[in-house]
Amino acid sequence: MAFIKTIRGIGHRVINAVWRIGVAARFFFLTIIYSGNSFRRFNLIIKELFSSGVMSLIIIIVAGLFVGMVLGLQGYETLKRYGSESALGVMVALGLVRELGPVMAALLFASRAGSAMTAEIGLMKATEQISAMEMMAVNPIARIVAPRFWAGVISMPLLAALFSAVGIFGGYLVGVVQIGVDEGSFWSQMQAAVDFREDVLNGVIKSLVFGTVVTLIALFEGFDAPPTAEGVSGATTRTVVTSSLAILMLDFVLTAIMFRGA
Amino acid sequence: MERTTLDLWVGMFVVAGIASLVFLAMKVGNLGTYNMSNTYELHAYFSNVGGLKPKASIKDAGVLVGRVVSINLDTNRYEADVVMHIDKRYQFPKDTFANILTSGLLGEQYIGLMPGGDTEMLKNGDRIKQTQSAMVLEDLISKFMFSKAAEPAATK
Fold it and tell me: Are A91 and A75 in contact (CB under 8 A)?
């Protein structure tokens, strides 16, 4: 009997997971359909851009600076063995623009802004603000979800670009200013190796995908949270865990597609 | 429309993001460095291109004058057909020599052009007749080995 119970338990969890994926897909579809309204009321998006984009600026800039500085130090230590310190700029720039910029910025964004979105919407649901809106014939997806979704999608590439730019500056500070790698070769080798379409634009595409996925997960978890204190806290945790995993897995898939031939 | 401090912050955020994108494109990437819009096309057959890749640079006297666009195998001759785009500002005589060279001992490979003395210039779509293949390290080593192996019999 215990055996059957276990199997039933597993089946129940699998069916539940598939069910949630289906609901999430419908949620995404509805968000896209109702986003026309939120573009007409652009003020709503501006407000959300402030709370998710502008408020994430400091963590992105500080983290980017330090990641770039670490890349500069570690890259120098390794490249020195092969006598090619002048390629430090290439290493720092390619590492940041292709991978670390989009991925780290998305991870930070998920934990800084995504968790806040989930908690906010979950609490709105728990305090029955969403039911109240439906009562007043205001569509909560158009009024609450769509502006947050577009704010996330818009701010993610900007944050990732900022992360990469600040990181390269950090690598410059450590490599050129502190250690004394030749400044000319640092920049010129970087420019020769980094391609606008292949590297910079692919990084932007990556961060757009991450922005879409992270905000969608955060909003869906908030909307789907059980309306209790425990439910909201669980949903917030799930947002951070699920979106971090989604970012890292998607990054592998995107990298495999984009840089296969190169 | 009333203006709020919120708008200012969001504006600053967007400007900072776009500025860093421009920085990545211009200063970090190659968008600002070399504009290859005005080019003409040259072809050349090489019997071995070695590690030459599309986008490799083409240099004359160390100055970047163009880039390799594509490398295909011509099955009529079983030689590599290299298509190059050269900047319009630079014209080369008909008897220009194209070598595949290596920057540094183990560095990237590029095409070095050596202009001849012909008065006629290469035009769009022309073919460089005189080429020299890439230096392949294995060939050099085997040549060296064979000559070494042949030596003792002569000197002993």
Answer: yes
Q: Which residues of chain A have a CB within 8 Å of the CB of B7?
A: 46
The interface residues of chain B toward chain A in range 14-33, judged by CB-CB distance below 8 A, are 14, 16-21, 23-25, 27-33
Buried/exposed code over B5-43 (b: 16+ C-beta within 10 A; e: otherwise) = eebebbeebbebbeebbebbbebbbbbeeeeeeebbebe
Q: Give the Cα separation of A142 and A32 in Å (integer).
A: 9
Q: Are A79 and A87 within 8 A, CB to CB?
A: yes
Q: Mean pLDDT, chain B, as a whole number? A: 83
- pLDDT per position as a tens digit, A5-32: 999 999 999 999 899 899 999 999 999 9
Q: Which residues pair with B132 in a beta bridge?
A: B99
| B103 in reach of chain A (CB within 8 A) | no
Contact A155 B18 (CB under 8 A): no
Which of A164, A191, A204 faces B30 most closely, judged by CB atoms? A191
Q: pLDDT digit string (tens) for B104-151?
A: 666 678 888 888 888 888 888 888 888 888 777 788 888 888 888 887
- Asked if B17 lies within 8 A of A157 by C-beta distance, the reply is yes
Closest of A205, A97, A207, A90 to residue B24, by C-alpha: A97
Token pair of A109 as six digits? 């964004």
Please report where in the chains the tokens 């799930």 appear, as a residue.
A238
**Cβ atoms of residues A59 and A161 within 8 Å:** no
Tell if the pTM clears 0.90, that is, is over it.
no
CB atoms within 10 A of CB A215: 29
Q: What is the largest CA-CA distance in chain B?
A: 100
- Cα B1 to Cα A42, A44, A240, B7, distances in angstroms: 12, 14, 37, 11
Chain B, 46 to 65: residues with Cβ < 8 Å from chain A are 55
CA distance A258 to chain B (A): 17
